[in-house]
Amino acid sequence: MSTNDIPLVAEAEAKVPPAVTRGSRMGKASRQTRGMLVSDVVLIATLLAVVAMVLVPGWIAPYSPTEFNPAVAMMPPSWEYPFGTDEFGRDILSRVIHGARPTLVVAIAGAIMGVGLGTVTGLLAGYAGGRTDEVLMRFMDALMSFPTLILATLIVVMLGSNPVNVIAAIGIVFWPRSARIARAVAQDVAQRSFIEAAWVRGESHAYILFRELLPGVLNVVVVDLSLRITYGTMLSASLSYLGIGVTPPTPAWGLMVKDGQQFIQFASWMVIWPCVAISVVAVAAVLAGERLRQILAPTERGN
Amino acid sequence: MTIAMIPMPIAARVAPTLAVEGLSIDYGPVQAVRNVSLAIAPGEAYGLIGESGSGKSTVAYAVMGYLNSGRVSGGRVVLNGADVFAMGERGLEAVRGSVVSMVFQDPMNALNPSIRVGEQIAEGIRRHAGLDRRAARKRTLELIGLVNLPDPEAITLRYPHQLSGGQLQRIVIAMALALEPKLLVLDEPTTGLDVTTEAVILDLIADIKARSNVALLFISHNLGVVARMCDRVGVLYAGTLVEEGRTDDLLQRPHHPYTRGLIDAMPSVTAAREMVGIPGRLPDLAQVPDGCIFQDRCVLATADCRHGVIPMETIGPGHSSRCLRWRSCATELAPARPAVPRASLAGMAPRLEVADLTRDFPGAPLFPFFRSRPVVQALRGVSLDVREGETVAIVGESGSGKSTFGRLVAGLDRPGGGRILFDGRDISALARARGRDDQRDVQFVFQNPHSALNPHHSVEAIIGRPLRLYLGLRGRALRERVLEILTAVRLGERYLTRAPRELSGGEKQRVCIARAFAANPKLVICDEPTSALDISVQAAILQELRRLQRESENQTSYLFITHDLGVVRQIADRVAVMYLGEIVEFGETADIFTAPQHPYTEALLAAVPEIGRAEQANRRDMRLEGPLPKPTNPPTGCGFHTRCPRVLGPLCETMPPKQSKAEGHWLKCHIPIAQLRRLQESG
């Protein structure tokens, strides 16, 4: 016999964990992975490698990233040149390693700026509500109506093509997107009684925003930041692919893809390795964000 | 396995509708339910009492064959002769609805908000019983009539949001009865409802039971409800059935210290007796202790209670207890003490004086430029005073405006009109706009302790905050004062560094109270401070509040907002009864709880289910029928006349006069006091 209303209703109810599990913290902790996993070790190793590439590329890279060596131009990957060489005989591996800094510093700084602006805006909008919320969020909507890459290009071209302006461009592009996320969470937290408790105490708005509200939003903001770093990496790569921002001979990853694409048919390694680097960083940042969320999430959900 | 079988009651010698045999259910390492056995005969109502974490809902869901993430580690559930866990999904589907069906606590969640309720009932009938559209519709109308909803035709066309909580719960009951099940599982069916609505729903369930042979498994934390509805009762504690017996037998002569503790913790509306909480907390069910499950919280526990399996011992016909020392329960446990009447505070100076307070919530238009929705009149001229050291309770049902009143006094909202005087100063402003002293003097304790504490702050930071803010305390002085308060609410030093999520509900509320009391307030507004807590915890929290008031330096006053009349009787010096944004009766607690009363107060009291109040079942004439009038368009004259069981006629549509039966007491009613007395004494 097919289902009827009553069991359907009951099923919907039954998905809510029964009262017993709610009371005990053990049930949840055992199923949730809070300890270290093998994947965590891999993740941490990857992140450390990326950090080393940004901080001390000269120590790791076997060759100079900029020195021409026509004798070994466009060599396929070998023991000597594990990632192969480009049309000027420069080692791709060394260029990928040195490319981390111009790519990632811009991405991370841009993401921090965007998420920072967005968080403050979102907190304000979510806490104040009403007209303040309306004005702030419509402004954010206006910003968001521009396609990402076009807005970023516009900003860099207007301000002048240098790394600082690329950071500003990435920040502005991410601002409304982070603001929306922060606002949604802030609205939720602002409903809770401890905000009213602060009201009754006569706390200042600044105290409520940053001491009461912000900690509740922070775990989402951290995850958002890790995602924005990913997008930032790709956006800064896209910008340098378009020839804006970082300029040759600095080995930014996007630039390497751009330079390599004309040889893609007979020297595909010139494009593949910087792409791999972008992907690895992107995936690592997303995974790190996901793990951070798991670790930061409060065990017990208050009702 | 050594299952201590419970002797079957006489009625159950026929094949029971439901037999739970040695049922054990685990959630991961948590042994949530252990070796629970019970049987329900056809036509019998069995009450399963337990607090949160007792496993009562787990048992209820297991009866329906829902295990969720749980795992059956022993025992079985036999429903109408068939083993539920051996049926498989298809078998269960066939059984659900036709053999067993369930009524949930929250009817709003149990219904689909986007389908008309008539269709929701009919769909089940069509699918399950194979009736055609017309026959299903006929049956739907029949069912809606069965649950006493007026005008079934019109009701079928409504969406869930257009019906009140009580009406929705009746629809859910109608759905549950659609296929004439043999067993109806009711999981806290009236917990979310107002007391007057609860009474009507309980009447309905009692009627259904009397008319059919359906067996009821009634899950509740409320002893009063169970006492009224059930033939037999089982008491569940931390996954173990600790006592079972006939309702009156078990509740009059409990033979387990836990049952006794629950009864003593119940606030009573009939008699003023001291409520006693049960100290301690639930054991960790991931490591079930050896011996008696209740040993840590039991005053009778001896060395024997701490090891081995405690058997269910028969102590009388159909009455058994899982206690080695059940013989001592009656003799060694202290008898309930009558509450010490408090000296009248009539001579004390007024601390809070509220005059003609109004508050409207203008309905904002749904879309810009469209017509505004009607104005909700939450408060319609409320006047009240609270004296030094006094507890004034505001009691009323949802929608009465009692919470709005508390929020205005606390400065969470601004009044539309009227005055709020505190120590002679006008404080009808938002809390932020008040002076530092007024902020410090007026504190608030919230209803839900789980959301009233910032999960990212430690207990020390939470309690220390008002001290930093108002008194500028820092460093050692701050820590000493925090510790002092923490000790005053019976939490020790080890709680300082804890985060709220590491506290139980009762502990959280103690922290909230500590925060409110940290800077020696003069007025604490308590908005339903115990309604989110178990009753054993509630009693302890209420005692704490009273003790803090007694010991406070500045004669702290309480404005106590609640819907629970039992709590009111135990804690309040004076009571204001609110209905639709107005106070209908105000006076000393003793005067409010004795006739003659305002008909609304009378109806409220008549609705309270309580142990040993058999006469209340006959007070059906005082049931409030019909929906609460819309607060956007309250009735003219006496706001209560549309539902008043003692309504006189057109006279009631004019403003009722204030009448007084005692010093400091008044009520607003057209019926003269003497006549009210005659009416109410004749019953």
Topology:
The complex is a heterodimer of chains A (303) and B (683).
Chain A lengths: L4 H10 L4 H5 L2 H6 L6 H18 L1 H4 L31 H37 L1 H15 L3 H12 L3 H28 L2 H9 L3 H37 L11 H8 L8 H28 L7
Helix pairs in contact in A: 4-6, 4-13, 6-7, 6-9, 6-11, 6-13, 7-9, 8-9, 9-11, 11-12, 11-13, 12-13
Chain B lengths: L17 E10 L2 E11 L4 E5 L6 H8 L7 E9 L2 E2 L4 H8 L4 E4 L3 H4 L6 H13 L3 H14 L5 H5 L8 H13 L5 E5 L7 H17 L3 E6 L2 H7 L2 E6 L2 E7 H6 L4 H9 L47 E4 L2 E3 L4 H7 L17 E14 L9 E15 L3 E5 L6 H9 L6 E6 L2 E2 L9 H6 E4 L3 H4 L6 H13 L3 H14 L16 H13 L5 E5 L7 H17 L5 E6 L2 H7 L2 E6 L2 E7 H4 L6 H9 L50 E2 L6 E3 L4 H10 L1
Parallel strand pairs in B: 3-8, 3-9, 6-7, 7-8, 15-20, 15-21, 18-19, 19-20
Antiparallel strand pairs in B: 1-2, 1-4, 4-5, 9-10, 10-12, 11-12, 13-14, 13-16, 16-17, 21-22, 22-24, 23-24
